[in-house]
Design goal:
Helix content is 29%, strand content 25%. It has helices spanning 49-56, 79-86, 104-110, 120-133, 149-161, 179-196, and strands spanning 7-16, 23-33, 38-42, 64-69, 72-73, 89-92, 167-171, 199-203, 215-220, 223-224, 228-229. The longest helix is centred in the C-terminal third of the chain and has 18 residues, at 179-196. The chain binds adenosine-5'-diphosphate (ADP) and magnesium ion (MG). Residues 16, 25, 43, 45-51 line the site of adenosine-5'-diphosphate.
Amino acid sequence: MSTEPIVSVRDLNHAFGKGELRKPVLYDVTLDIYPGEIVILTGPSGSGKTTLLTLIGALRSVQQGSLKVLTQELNGANKKQLVQVRSKIGFIFQAHNLLECLTARQNVGMSLRLHHHIPFEERTTRSMAILEAVGLGDRVNYYPDNLSGGQKQRVAIARALVSEPSLLLADEPTAALDSKSGRDVVEIMQQLAQEQGCAILLVTHDNRILDIADRILHMEDGRLATDTALHS
Ligand code: ADP
Ligand code: MG
Protein backbone atom coordinates (compact mmCIF):
# COMPACT_ATOMS: atom_id res chain seq x y z
CA MET A 1 0.00 0.00 0.00
CA SER A 2 1.34 3.41 -0.89
CA THR A 3 -0.74 5.49 1.53
CA GLU A 4 0.76 6.64 4.83
CA PRO A 5 0.09 4.29 7.73
CA ILE A 6 -2.25 5.58 10.41
CA VAL A 7 -0.19 3.83 13.09
CA SER A 8 3.52 3.26 12.70
CA VAL A 9 5.42 1.49 15.47
CA ARG A 10 9.19 0.96 15.37
CA ASP A 11 11.22 -1.00 17.92
CA LEU A 12 8.91 -0.13 20.75
CA ASN A 13 9.99 -1.36 24.18
CA HIS A 14 8.08 -1.00 27.41
CA ALA A 15 8.63 -2.02 31.03
CA PHE A 16 6.68 -1.64 34.26
CA GLY A 17 8.30 -0.87 37.60
CA LYS A 18 11.75 0.39 38.50
CA GLY A 19 15.04 -1.00 39.75
CA GLU A 20 14.83 -4.60 40.90
CA LEU A 21 11.11 -4.65 40.26
CA ARG A 22 11.50 -3.56 36.64
CA LYS A 23 9.66 -5.93 34.37
CA PRO A 24 9.93 -5.63 30.59
CA VAL A 25 6.63 -6.38 28.84
CA LEU A 26 7.14 -5.27 25.21
CA TYR A 27 10.24 -6.06 23.15
CA ASP A 28 11.07 -4.36 19.83
CA VAL A 29 7.50 -4.20 18.62
CA THR A 30 7.26 -3.03 15.01
CA LEU A 31 4.00 -2.68 13.14
CA ASP A 32 2.04 -0.53 10.67
CA ILE A 33 -1.70 -0.10 10.39
CA TYR A 34 -3.14 1.49 7.26
CA PRO A 35 -6.31 3.57 6.87
CA GLY A 36 -9.45 1.44 6.88
CA GLU A 37 -7.63 -1.79 7.79
CA ILE A 38 -9.04 -4.23 10.35
CA VAL A 39 -6.21 -5.80 12.34
CA ILE A 40 -6.86 -8.41 15.02
CA LEU A 41 -4.32 -8.92 17.80
CA THR A 42 -4.39 -12.23 19.65
CA GLY A 43 -2.13 -13.88 22.20
CA PRO A 44 -2.14 -15.35 25.70
CA SER A 45 -3.14 -13.38 28.75
CA GLY A 46 -0.24 -11.32 30.05
CA SER A 47 1.56 -11.19 26.68
CA GLY A 48 1.35 -7.37 26.48
CA LYS A 49 -1.67 -6.73 24.22
CA THR A 50 -3.40 -4.18 26.46
CA THR A 51 -0.10 -2.42 27.13
CA LEU A 52 0.45 -2.03 23.38
CA LEU A 53 -3.13 -0.83 22.83
CA THR A 54 -2.92 1.80 25.57
CA LEU A 55 0.43 3.03 24.21
CA ILE A 56 -1.05 3.40 20.71
CA GLY A 57 -4.07 5.14 22.25
CA ALA A 58 -1.80 7.74 23.87
CA LEU A 59 -3.09 6.63 27.29
CA ARG A 60 0.41 5.71 28.52
CA SER A 61 3.78 7.40 27.87
CA VAL A 62 6.20 5.90 25.40
CA GLN A 63 9.49 4.91 27.03
CA GLN A 64 11.61 3.68 24.18
CA GLY A 65 11.19 3.41 20.42
CA SER A 66 9.06 5.26 17.93
CA LEU A 67 5.28 5.33 17.91
CA LYS A 68 3.52 7.52 15.36
CA VAL A 69 -0.24 7.85 15.36
CA LEU A 70 -1.75 9.99 12.60
CA THR A 71 1.78 11.27 11.85
CA GLN A 72 2.25 12.54 15.44
CA GLU A 73 5.30 11.04 17.18
CA LEU A 74 4.12 10.06 20.67
CA ASN A 75 7.60 9.50 22.09
CA GLY A 76 8.30 12.83 23.76
CA ALA A 77 4.96 14.37 22.80
CA ASN A 78 3.54 17.01 25.15
CA LYS A 79 0.18 16.86 26.90
CA LYS A 80 -1.59 18.98 24.30
CA GLN A 81 -0.35 16.78 21.46
CA LEU A 82 -1.48 13.65 23.33
CA VAL A 83 -4.96 15.08 23.90
CA GLN A 84 -5.10 15.99 20.22
CA VAL A 85 -4.22 12.43 19.15
CA ARG A 86 -6.67 10.91 21.65
CA SER A 87 -9.51 12.99 20.23
CA LYS A 88 -9.06 11.20 16.88
CA ILE A 89 -9.24 7.72 18.40
CA GLY A 90 -12.29 5.73 19.48
CA PHE A 91 -11.92 3.31 22.40
CA ILE A 92 -13.94 0.24 23.29
CA PHE A 93 -13.00 -1.75 26.37
CA GLN A 94 -13.96 -5.18 27.67
CA ALA A 95 -16.29 -3.62 30.20
CA HIS A 96 -18.51 -1.08 28.48
CA ASN A 97 -17.54 1.72 30.91
CA LEU A 98 -20.81 3.57 30.42
CA LEU A 99 -21.80 6.13 33.02
CA GLU A 100 -24.74 4.62 34.90
CA CYS A 101 -26.34 8.00 35.66
CA LEU A 102 -26.56 8.99 31.99
CA THR A 103 -28.92 7.67 29.31
CA ALA A 104 -27.61 5.92 26.19
CA ARG A 105 -27.87 9.18 24.24
CA GLN A 106 -26.12 11.20 26.94
CA ASN A 107 -23.33 8.61 27.18
CA VAL A 108 -22.76 8.84 23.43
CA GLY A 109 -23.00 12.64 23.50
CA MET A 110 -20.31 12.82 26.20
CA SER A 111 -17.62 11.74 23.76
CA LEU A 112 -18.49 14.67 21.49
CA ARG A 113 -17.96 17.19 24.27
CA LEU A 114 -14.23 17.29 23.51
CA HIS A 115 -15.15 18.50 20.04
CA HIS A 116 -16.08 22.05 20.98
CA HIS A 117 -16.78 23.10 17.43
CA ILE A 118 -19.84 20.84 17.27
CA PRO A 119 -22.92 22.69 18.59
CA PHE A 120 -25.05 21.02 21.29
CA GLU A 121 -27.99 20.40 18.96
CA GLU A 122 -25.80 18.68 16.42
CA ARG A 123 -24.26 16.53 19.14
CA THR A 124 -27.76 15.33 20.04
CA THR A 125 -28.69 14.66 16.41
CA ARG A 126 -25.49 12.75 15.78
CA SER A 127 -25.87 10.72 18.99
CA MET A 128 -29.40 9.72 18.01
CA ALA A 129 -28.34 8.83 14.46
CA ILE A 130 -25.49 6.58 15.54
CA LEU A 131 -27.63 4.83 18.18
CA GLU A 132 -30.11 4.20 15.39
CA ALA A 133 -27.25 2.77 13.30
CA VAL A 134 -26.28 0.29 16.04
CA GLY A 135 -29.92 -0.80 16.30
CA LEU A 136 -30.80 1.06 19.49
CA GLY A 137 -33.06 3.75 18.03
CA ASP A 138 -35.80 2.72 20.47
CA ARG A 139 -33.48 2.71 23.51
CA VAL A 140 -31.89 6.19 23.33
CA ASN A 141 -33.42 7.29 26.64
CA TYR A 142 -32.62 4.06 28.52
CA TYR A 143 -30.10 3.98 31.34
CA PRO A 144 -27.34 1.31 31.16
CA ASP A 145 -29.01 -0.65 34.01
CA ASN A 146 -31.97 -1.33 31.75
CA LEU A 147 -29.93 -2.55 28.79
CA SER A 148 -28.53 -6.05 28.12
CA GLY A 149 -24.78 -6.69 27.92
CA GLY A 150 -24.86 -6.70 24.13
CA GLN A 151 -26.92 -3.49 24.04
CA LYS A 152 -24.51 -1.77 26.42
CA GLN A 153 -21.57 -2.75 24.24
CA ARG A 154 -23.44 -1.38 21.21
CA VAL A 155 -23.82 1.94 23.07
CA ALA A 156 -20.05 1.79 23.69
CA ILE A 157 -19.49 1.30 19.95
CA ALA A 158 -21.77 4.25 19.19
CA ARG A 159 -19.87 6.35 21.72
CA ALA A 160 -16.52 5.36 20.20
CA LEU A 161 -17.56 6.06 16.61
CA VAL A 162 -19.86 9.10 16.90
CA SER A 163 -16.94 11.50 16.47
CA GLU A 164 -15.84 9.61 13.32
CA PRO A 165 -12.34 8.76 14.54
CA SER A 166 -9.64 7.60 12.13
CA LEU A 167 -8.72 4.73 14.43
CA LEU A 168 -10.75 2.45 16.67
CA LEU A 169 -8.99 0.55 19.46
CA ALA A 170 -11.02 -2.29 20.94
CA ASP A 171 -9.76 -4.41 23.85
CA GLU A 172 -11.63 -7.72 24.08
CA PRO A 173 -14.97 -6.05 23.35
CA THR A 174 -16.87 -9.35 23.19
CA ALA A 175 -15.33 -10.99 26.27
CA ALA A 176 -18.38 -10.44 28.46
CA LEU A 177 -20.94 -11.38 25.80
CA ASP A 178 -22.50 -14.64 24.63
CA SER A 179 -21.35 -15.73 21.18
CA LYS A 180 -24.40 -14.42 19.29
CA SER A 181 -24.27 -10.94 20.87
CA GLY A 182 -20.49 -10.93 20.46
CA ARG A 183 -20.78 -11.63 16.77
CA ASP A 184 -23.48 -8.97 16.33
CA VAL A 185 -21.42 -6.36 18.16
CA VAL A 186 -18.34 -7.03 16.03
CA GLU A 187 -20.29 -6.97 12.78
CA ILE A 188 -21.81 -3.61 13.69
CA MET A 189 -18.37 -2.30 14.58
CA GLN A 190 -16.95 -3.55 11.28
CA GLN A 191 -19.79 -2.10 9.20
CA LEU A 192 -19.73 1.36 10.79
CA ALA A 193 -15.94 1.60 10.73
CA GLN A 194 -15.92 0.64 7.06
CA GLU A 195 -18.52 3.28 6.23
CA GLN A 196 -16.35 5.88 7.97
CA GLY A 197 -13.02 4.58 6.58
CA CYS A 198 -11.85 4.00 10.14
CA ALA A 199 -9.03 1.54 10.88
CA ILE A 200 -9.60 -1.00 13.68
CA LEU A 201 -7.11 -2.64 16.02
CA LEU A 202 -9.02 -5.30 17.90
CA VAL A 203 -7.67 -7.49 20.70
CA THR A 204 -9.59 -10.73 21.06
CA HIS A 205 -9.45 -14.35 22.19
CA ASP A 206 -12.67 -15.02 20.36
CA ASN A 207 -11.91 -17.40 17.48
CA ARG A 208 -15.38 -16.92 16.04
CA ILE A 209 -14.66 -13.36 14.95
CA LEU A 210 -11.22 -13.78 13.37
CA ASP A 211 -12.76 -13.78 9.88
CA ILE A 212 -13.55 -10.06 10.01
CA ALA A 213 -9.82 -9.24 10.01
CA ASP A 214 -7.69 -8.14 7.08
CA ARG A 215 -4.67 -9.23 9.12
CA ILE A 216 -4.08 -11.18 12.31
CA LEU A 217 -1.15 -10.43 14.59
CA HIS A 218 -0.04 -12.73 17.36
CA MET A 219 1.71 -11.58 20.50
CA GLU A 220 3.71 -13.88 22.71
CA ASP A 221 5.78 -12.79 25.74
CA GLY A 222 5.86 -9.18 24.59
CA ARG A 223 6.92 -9.91 21.02
CA LEU A 224 4.89 -9.75 17.84
CA ALA A 225 5.07 -12.82 15.65
CA THR A 226 5.09 -12.34 11.88
CA ASP A 227 1.65 -11.43 10.70
CA THR A 228 -0.66 -13.34 8.46
CA ALA A 229 -2.31 -11.49 5.61
CA LEU A 230 -5.74 -12.99 5.04
CA HIS A 231 -6.95 -11.26 1.91
CA SER A 232 -5.21 -9.98 -1.24
P1 ADP B 1 -2.54 -8.77 28.04
O1 ADP B 1 -3.45 -7.61 27.71
O2 ADP B 1 -1.96 -9.43 26.84
O3 ADP B 1 -3.20 -9.76 28.94
P2 ADP B 1 -1.06 -6.80 29.57
O4 ADP B 1 -0.52 -5.81 28.60
O5 ADP B 1 -2.24 -6.40 30.35
O6 ADP B 1 -1.28 -8.19 28.83
O7 ADP B 1 0.08 -7.16 30.59
C1 ADP B 1 1.40 -7.52 30.20
C2 ADP B 1 2.24 -7.74 31.45
O8 ADP B 1 2.42 -6.48 32.11
C3 ADP B 1 1.62 -8.65 32.48
O9 ADP B 1 2.62 -9.42 33.05
C4 ADP B 1 1.00 -7.72 33.49
O10 ADP B 1 0.98 -8.29 34.76
C5 ADP B 1 1.95 -6.54 33.45
N1 ADP B 1 1.28 -5.26 33.73
C6 ADP B 1 0.25 -4.74 33.05
N2 ADP B 1 -0.13 -3.54 33.54
C7 ADP B 1 0.71 -3.29 34.58
C8 ADP B 1 0.88 -2.20 35.49
N3 ADP B 1 0.08 -1.12 35.44
N4 ADP B 1 1.86 -2.30 36.42
C9 ADP B 1 2.68 -3.38 36.47
N5 ADP B 1 2.60 -4.42 35.63
C10 ADP B 1 1.63 -4.40 34.70
MG1 MG C 1 -5.47 -7.33 28.15
